[in-house]
C-alpha cells in the first residue's frame, strides 16, 4: 500500500490528530506492567503479572465514545501486548494489541494505545495477548457505561462489582508455556485453582485471601462477571440469591432470572442481585464445567456476599448447580438469553433496529478446531491448519508491502477441512460490507469459545450433529456477543463486516490459541480515505521486516578517520516522517 516516499503517508499522519479529538471524553491512564513474585495468590512463589502493582489490573471505566489513552510501560522481562477483548476498535485495528496487528512493546519501553469505545456499551476485560502471559495475570475489567442521554433498561444499582473469575496454575506461567511443547501438557494440562478477582477459595488453606462484596439489605447490585481463565467454563451462583441477567458483552438482554449462570472462557455478563435475604454472609461459587470437582476442591471458586453488619459467617452446603456434564443445560441457557430488541444501548434507537433474519449472506466460513502433531510439535488447528505467527505483524506487512512475503491471502480452506495438516500464515478475506456467516463445529471434547475481534456476532443457530445450509430455516436471533461456546455440535453466527482492518479470529482457550487455533480475517477497503480506515498511529512501532531506520552514526571523533560503511538493513527502511 504505502511505500517509502509515498506522499499519501504524510497526509495520513496529519489526520491522526484530527481523529484523536473526536467526541467523547479523553481518559488518560499510565500503566506499569511488571512481574511480582510476592503476590502469591495460591501461597506459592510464582510470577504474577501486575499493573501498577495490582492483580487483577485496574478498572477502565469509560462511557460510550470516550477515547482511552493507555500508556503501557513494559517493566517485565519479555515483550508484551495487551488486547481489549470486546472493544471493537472501529476502523482502527492498529490498536487491537494482538500479534497480527502490533509489534510487541519491548521490555524497558513504553507504548501508548489510543482507542475509542465507539458506539459501544457493556462489560469487557483486557488481557495480555502474546507469550501465554494471560496465564500469569495482567487482566482487568472494562466497563463502558451508557451516555447520560440513553436510559439503561433497569433501575440504578446501589453499586457495581467487577468479578473476574478464572482458572489458574500453581506453576509459573513461563514453565507452563515451555511445557506446551510436550505433548502431554499441551493437550492435557488442567489448571489448579479457580480464582475470583485474583483470590483463592474462601477457607482454603492455599488461598491467602478470598473475595468478598459488602451489600446492604434491600439494595440491588450489578455484578459484572467475566471468565478470564485459561480453559474452563464455570457455573456461577450465589447461595439463596437469584440473579437477573441484563447484559452480555455489550448488548442488553431480555431480563431473565436464573439460579446459576454458565460463563465460558472470554465471556462477560452483567447480572442484578438484590440483597433480599437475612443479613448474614452467603457463598458465591464458580464450579468448573465438564469435570467432577468436589466442594472441597480448589477448582471450586468460593467468595462471600457479605451483608453489612453481618456477624454470621456463610454456612450450610455450597449452593448446588446443574450437573457439570449437562451440555444441554449450557445450550438451553444460552438459547434463553435473547436480545432486548426495544431498548437503546450505545445509541437511542432500539437494539432491534437491525433485523438479521432477512439478510443476504455474502460468505460462509465453516470452521472446526482440532489437535494435530505437526513437525513433531503439538498443535491446535482450524480446518487442519495451524497458524504460524510471523515476526512481522500482518497489519504492518499490509501497509508497507501489500502483505507480500509475510502471509498468504485466501489459500486458507474457509469452508472445508484441509486434507492433511499444515502450519502457515494464512489470511482469509472477509468481504467488506458483506454479511459473513460462520459455522463453528466442535469435535473436541471440551467447550471451545471463539472470538472475532472487530465485530460482534449475532448468534443465530445451535445444533447437534452436522450442519447443512438448509438448517438456516431453523435459525433464530439469540443474542449478540463477541464470543460463544460450542461443544459436540455447531453454532452459527452472522457478522456484518463493516469494519475494515486485520482481525483476529481465535479460540479463547488459551492453549489452543497459543498452539495455533486462530486465523486472521482481512476486511479491506481499497479507498485510502482515512474516514474508511484509520491510518497507522503516529507512534507506530516497527519490527520484523520493517525495522526502524538506524540511528545516525555518531560524529567521527577528530583523531580517527571514518572508514565504517553506512549501516545496511536487508529491507529498505520505511521513511518515518512524523
Ligand atoms: C465510572 O464512571 C461513571 C460515569 O462517569 C461514574 O458515574 C462512576 O462513578 C464511575 N465508577 C467508578 C468505579 O469509577
Ligand atoms: C512513553 O511515555 C512518555 C512519558 O509519559 C510519553 O511522553 C511517550 O509518548 C510514551 N511513548 C510512547 C511511544 O507512547
Ligand atoms: C431469617 O430470619 C428469621 C428471623 O430471625 C428466621 O425466622 C428465618 O428462618 C430466617 N430465614 C432464613 C432463610 O434463614
Ligand atoms: C464424575 O463423578 C461421577 C460420580 O462420582 C462418576 O460417575 C463419573 O464417572 C465421573 N466422571 C468423570 C469424567 O470423572
Ligand atoms: C450497620 O451498623 C452501623 C453502626 O452501628 C449502622 O450505622 C448502620 O445503619 C448499620 N447498617 C445496617 C444495614 O444495618
Ligand atoms: C461439602 O460436601 C459435604 C458432603 O456432601 C457436605 O457434608 C459439606 O457440608 C459440604 N461443604 C460445603 C462447604 O458445602
Ligand atoms: C427491554 O427494555 C425495555 C426498555 O427499553 C424495558 O422496559 C423492558 O422491560 C425490557 N424487556 C425485557 C424483557 O427485559
Ligand atoms: C427482506 O429484504 C428484502 C430486501 O432487502 C426486502 O425487499 C424484503 O421486504 C424483506 N422481507 C421482509 C419480510 O422483511
Ligand atoms: C425480522 O424479520 C422477519 C422477516 O424477515 C420477521 O418475521 C420478524 O418478525 C422480524 N423480527 C423482528 C424482531 O422485527
Ligand atoms: C488427500 O490426500 C491424499 C494424499 O495426498 C490423497 O491420496 C487423497 O486422495 C486426498 N483426499 C482428498 C479427499 O482429496
Ligand atoms: C486432517 O489432517 C489429518 C492428518 O493429516 C488427516 O488424517 C485428516 O484426514 C485430515 N482431515 C480431513 C477432513 O481431511
Ligand atoms: C438459506 O440458505 C439457502 C441456501 O442453502 C439460501 O438459498 C436461502 O436464501 C437462505 N435463507 C436465508 C433466510 O438466509
TrEMBL record:
Residues 530-578 are annotated as: Disordered. It comes from the Eukaryota. Keywords: Glycoprotein, Signal. Residues 40-147, 163-310, 404-526 form the Plastocyanin-like domain. One of its GO terms (cellular component) is plasma membrane. Residues 1-24 form the signal peptide. InterPro entries: Cu-oxidase-like_N, Cu-oxidase_2nd, Cu-oxidase_C, Cu-oxidase_fam, Cupredoxin. One of its GO terms (molecular function) is copper ion binding. Residues 547-578 have a biased composition (Pro residues). Belongs to the multicopper oxidase family. PANTHER family: MONOCOPPER OXIDASE-LIKE PROTEIN SKU5, MULTI-COPPER OXIDASE. This is Monocopper oxidase-like protein SKU5.
Amino acid at each position: 500500500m504505502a511505500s517509502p516516499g509515498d506522499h499519501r503517508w504524510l497526509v495520513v499522519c496529519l489526520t491522526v490528530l484530527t481523529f484523536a479529538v473526536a467526541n467523547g471524553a479523553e481518559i488518560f491512564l499510565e500503566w506499569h506492567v511488571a512481574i511480582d513474585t510476592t503476590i502469591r495468590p495460591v501461597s506459592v512463589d510464582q510470577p504474577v503479572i501486575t499493573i501498577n502493582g495490582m492483580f487483577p489490573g485496574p478498572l477502565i471505566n469509560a462511557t460510550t465514545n470516550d477515547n482511552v489513552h493507555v500508556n503501557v510501560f513494559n517493566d517485565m522481562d519479555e515483550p508484551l501486548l495487551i488486547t481489549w477483548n470486546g472493544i471493537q476498535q472501529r476502523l482502527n485495528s492498529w490498536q487491537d494489541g494482538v500479534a497480527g496487528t502490533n509489534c510487541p512493546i519491548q521490555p524497558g519501553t513504553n507504548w501508548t494505545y489510543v482507542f475509542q469505545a465507539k458506539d459501544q456499551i457493556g462489560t469487557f476485560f483486557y488481557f495480555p495477548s502474546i507469550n501465554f502471559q494471560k496465564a500469569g495475570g495482567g487482566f482487568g475489567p472494562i466497563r463502558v457505561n451508557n451516555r447520560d442521554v440513553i436510559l439503561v433498561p433497569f433501575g440504578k444499582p446501589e453499586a457495581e462489582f467487577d468479578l473476574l473469575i478464572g482458572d489458574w496454575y500453581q506453576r509459573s506461567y513461563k514453565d507452563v508455556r515451555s511445557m506446551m511443547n510436550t505433548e502431554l501438557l499441551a493437550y492435557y494440562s488442567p489448571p489448579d485453582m479457580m480464582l475470583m478477582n485474583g483470590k483463592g477459595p474462601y477457607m482454603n488453606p492455599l488461598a491467602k485471601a478470598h473475595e468478598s462484596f459488602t451489600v446492604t439489605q434491600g439494595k440491588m447490585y450489578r455484578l459484572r462477571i467475566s471468565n478470564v481463565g485459561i480453559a474452563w467454563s464455570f457455573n456461577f451462583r450465589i447461595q439463596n440469591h437469584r440473579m437477573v441477567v441484563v447484559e452480555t458483552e455489550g448488548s442488553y438482554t431480555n431480563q431473565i432470572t436464573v439460579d446459576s449462570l454458565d460463563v465460558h472462557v472470554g465471556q462477560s455478563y452483567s447480572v442484578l442481585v438484590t440483597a433480599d435475604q437475612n443479613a448474614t454472609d452467603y457463598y458465591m461459587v464458580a464450579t468448573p464445567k465438564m469435570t467432577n470437582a468436589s466442594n472441597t476442591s480448589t477448582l471450586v471458586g468460593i467468595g462471600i456476599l457479605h451483608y453489612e453488619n453481618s456477624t454470621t459467617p456463610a454456612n450450610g452446603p455450597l449452593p448446588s448447580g446443574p450437573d457439570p456434564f449437562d451440555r444441554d443445560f449450557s445450550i438451553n441457557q444460552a438459547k434463553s438469553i435473547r436480545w432486548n430488541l426495544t431498548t437503546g444501548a450505545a445509541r437511542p434507537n432500539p437494539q432491534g433496529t437491525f433485523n438479521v433474519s432477512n439478510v443476504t449472506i455474502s460468505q460462509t466460513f465453516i470452521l472446526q478446531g482440532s489437535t494435530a502433531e505437526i513437525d513433531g510439535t503439538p498443535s491446535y488447528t482450524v480446518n487442519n491448519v495451524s497458524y504460524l505467527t510471523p515476526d512481522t505483524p500482518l497489519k504492518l506487512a499490509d501497509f508497507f508491502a501489500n502483505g507480500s512475503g509475510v502471509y498468504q491471502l485466501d489459500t486458507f480452506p474457509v469452508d472445508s477441512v484441509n486434507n492433511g495438516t499444515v502450519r502457515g500464515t494464512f489470511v482469509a478475506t472477509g468481504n467488506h460490507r458483506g454479511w459473513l456467516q460462520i459455522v463453528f463445529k466442535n469435535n473436541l471434547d471440551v467447550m471451545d469459545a471463539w472470538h472475532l475481534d472487530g465485530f460482534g456476532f449475532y448468534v443465530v443457530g445451535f445444533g447437534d450433529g452436522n450442519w447443512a445450509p438448509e438448517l438456516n430455516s431453523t435459525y433464530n436471533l439469540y443474542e449478540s456477543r463477541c464470543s460463544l461456546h460450542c461443544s459436540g455440535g455447531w453454532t452459527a453466527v452472522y457478522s456484518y463486516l463493516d469494519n475494515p482492518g486485520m482481525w483476529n479470529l481465535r479460540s479463547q482457550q488459551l492453549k489452543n490459541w497459543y498452539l495455533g487455533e486462530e486465523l486472521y480475517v482481512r476486511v479491506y477497503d481499497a479507498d485510502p480515505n482515512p474516514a474508511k480506515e484509520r491510518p497507522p498511529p503516529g507512534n507506530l512501532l516497527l519490527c520484523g521486516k520493517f525495522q526502524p531506520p538506524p540511528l545516525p552514526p555518531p560524529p567521527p571523533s577528530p583523531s580517527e578517520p571514518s572508514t565504517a560503511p553506512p549501516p545496511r538493513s536487508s529491507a529498505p527502511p520505511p521513511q518515518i516522517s512524523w
